[in-house]
Amino acid sequence: MQPEFWNDKRAAGVPSDIDLSAYKSVIEVFERSCKAFADRPAFSNMGVTLTYAELERQSAAFAGYLQQHTDLKPGERIAVQMPNVLHYPIAVFGALRAGLIVVNTNPLYTPREMRHQFKDAGVRALVYLNLFGSRVQEVCTDTEIDYLIEARMGDFMPAAKGWLVNTLVDKVKKMVPAYHLPRAVSFKRALRLGAGLGLTRHPVTLDDIAVLQYTGGTTGLAKGAMLTHGNLVANMQQVRACMSQTGDDGHPLIKEGQEVMIAPLPLYHIYAFTANCMCMMVSGNHNVLITNPRDIGGFIKELKKWRFTGLLGLNTLFVALMDHPDFKSLDFSHLKLTNSGGTALIKATAERWQQLTGCA
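Predicted structure:
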């Protein structure tokens, strides 16, 4: 496939305009997808898969908890500070359905960066992974955060395995520094409390803010970019139009509800947030979440389990994968889309990738 194929909409017969009135909000896109693709897998992580129906139910429970067990009002801010784990899409879509604005937060932030972002955004609730509990404790008193919701790695695993994973992470690998946050509610408890409560619908328009996405802060303090429901819905429709273009075989590049997309880049960054969390959702496709992409051996082991059709990455990640001795043993026969962003893609990397995988 030639790169210019992407930009030549006339050749592919893709309409040059998208219909922004097709959806009223990200919430509507999400709820329609969950209905249309109910039995299809939505997100997988660490051996557990959530279907679209399960994602709908869990996010409704999280929204129910936020609406009935907190005094958070529509338009208030909730920060989500987690790596790529199943809690992330549940929290994000649950918060949006509850009428809140999501503040994507990097789990690698220093306490200084957390303080700045939480105060700047006026964050009143925080969902975090217990690995970062000590940093949360350090900054909490200096912010307006009233509600803490604490996730653990093993939350969605079968009971015995979940206990084992949580114990390993905490006691064996010593990945959880000591902290004391007695007011935190566990993520599992929040879901139990919110289950079956039903949602209060608040009117949301395309002009309402959905997400505060903070800039990298490389040229000064990080700034919160206001992304409206309209911004995100337009992005989803643009990507959908792009993906529905036909390839050399006369078939659309991406088929709805049939693709397996590997998601190693953090969903709290805008690139993977848009491409994986939003654009795979509107098309009913399956995201395989990689929690620690720096563990290249573990990443390749996970890739062996899937007949993956798409992969999102950036230059350094492609190089690290290709440099690993086990990379060549992977089955690339289903891979038809590799997308690079975030930083410049080096020509030599792109050529080597195509040579090794057969995918441009």
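Summary: The longest helix spans residues 52-68.
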